Amino acid sequence: MCSSVFQNQHQLDLHNSQEHEVKMKKIKRRSIFKISEEGRSFLGSGSHKRGNLEKDVMCHLCSRKFSSKLALQRHMGIHSGMKPYECQDCDYKTRLKASLIQHKRIHTGEKPFKCSQCLYASIDASSLRRHSRTHSNEKPYQCQQCPYSCIQKKSLDLHVRRHHTGEVFACNLCRYSSPDKQLLHRHLKKRHENVVQ
């Protein structure tokens, strides 16, 4: 495809989805995304374009380091809050074109990432990688305080909050709390649907 070199599989996957798959999909389906006026102005400025690769490029707002100017530029969207790519089917907005393409698969039902050992299929490569660990019994996330290990970081974070730190996410409308942020969101929708939007 191209001569780019990457330090790990994640960077390669990200590059392929954003630089190659996106261009092919854009040619096939021009109307897959729409861009807000704010986003159009950002893209027109050229500030999103790939710079020369450098080691240890640092964000001046939070001091996080990146291996390229491109990675830093993507990160800067977190601070600006700008989400120029909008879904035409719902109110989803995102900073990255590749994220919108992945999101659109929720509406189309397309699941191009298929497991070679069972019928599992997903909308993104990371979900397939996580699923593949169920076949290999690989559990790369290890608790530093006990023998617990698991296949995804989210599960480890929940385990640590539940069993070691006691950190919880509390409802500000009642006395409910949970170590699982998703359970708090579910609670808010179910118990306080008239208050929470």
UniProtKB/TrEMBL annotation:
Top-rank taxon, per record: Eukaryota
InterPro entries xref list: Znf_C2H2_sf, Znf_C2H2_type
UniProt keyword list: Metal-binding, Repeat, Zinc, Zinc-finger
Any Pfam family hit: zf-C2H2
Gene3D superfamilies named in the record: Classic Zinc Finger
Transmembrane segments: none
Protein transport in keyword set: no
GO molecular function, one term: zinc ion binding
Sequence ranges assigned to domain C2H2-type in this UniProt record: 57-84, 85-112, 113-140, 141-169
PANTHER family: KRAB AND ZINC FINGER DOMAIN-CONTAINING, ZINC FINGER AND BTB DOMAIN CONTAINING 17
Protein name: Oocyte zinc finger protein XlCOF15-like
Source species of the chain: Erpetoichthys calabaricus
